[in-house]
Structures are given as structure tokens and as C-alpha cells.
Design brief:
The protein is of the alpha+beta class and 122 residues long. Helix content is 28%, strand content 8%.
């Protein structure tokens, strides 16, 4: 169990439905750089699983202090499953860059559940 640092707690306390404090990153990869020439969902899950030991926060969730008398803490999520955080989505071929931007906007508009580790990958 580790208490949130001041800056992290500040982001959490200033967050609201109208002002979410989460961030998003879009990464575009060339599948030709993969050994097999393509990347599968199973490859991505395996990649995350190999690296989970490097960042404990990927397996932790928030826990509020009783009566909000202290800053929240990071606790290990007891029923953690990396597959629950990695979703496979596909756009129609004709969607193009505009379709990708619309999808990213839609995904970013949805808040993360604070009952689970605070990350998603699509």
C-alpha cells in the first residue's frame, strides 16, 4: 500500500464529470516491424504481461481513506486481469484518419472506473 503523492492526489481531487483529469496517448505502429509481419491481440497481451513487473501501478487501484481524512492510497487489485484492460477494436477500412480521430475522442470521453487499475489500451 502506497499513498498518492501530492500532485497525483491534486489531479484526483480536481476531477469532475465536466473536467476529467485523465490523459490519452495515441501510438501508431508499423506491423511490418513485428517478427511475423503482423501483431495480434494475443501478442499485445503477452507484451503487457511480460512488463507488468516493471510498473506496480498497472496492477493497483485507488482506495479512499475513511471519511476522506487522508490522501488516497494505491492498493494491489485482488482480481486483476490484464485482459480486462486491453480491448481489441477495428475501424472499417474506409474510416480513415477522421474515423480514427472520432473513435479516439469517443474513447477519451469515457471516464475510467476507479474500482479498477486506472488504465486501458485499445
Amino acid at each position: 500500500m502506497q499513498q498518492l503523492r501530492g500532485q497525483d492526489a491534486l489531479f484526483l481531487h480536481t476531477e469532475s464529470d465536466k473536467l476529467p483529469e485523465h490523459v490519452l496517448s495515441v501510438n501508431i505502429y508499423n506491423p511490418a516491424t513485428a517478427g511475423s509481419g503482423k501483431v495480434t491481440y494475443a501478442d499485445i497481451v503477452a507484451h503487457f504481461k511480460k512488463r507488468l513487473s516493471r510498473s506496480a501501478i498497472l496492477r493497483q487501484r485507488l482506495a479512499e481513506a475513511p471519511l476522506a481524512l487522508d490522501q488516497p492510497y494505491w492498493l494491489d487489485a485482488p482480481d486483476y486481469a490484464v485482459e480486462a484492460h486491453i480491448q481489441h477494436l477495428a475501424l472499417p477500412h474506409q474510416a480513415g484518419w477522421q474515423g480514427l480521430c472520432k473513435l479516439v475522442g469517443y474513447l477519451h470521453a469515457n471516464p475510467l472506473s476507479k474500482a479498477q487499475p486506472l488504465w486501458k489500451a485499445y
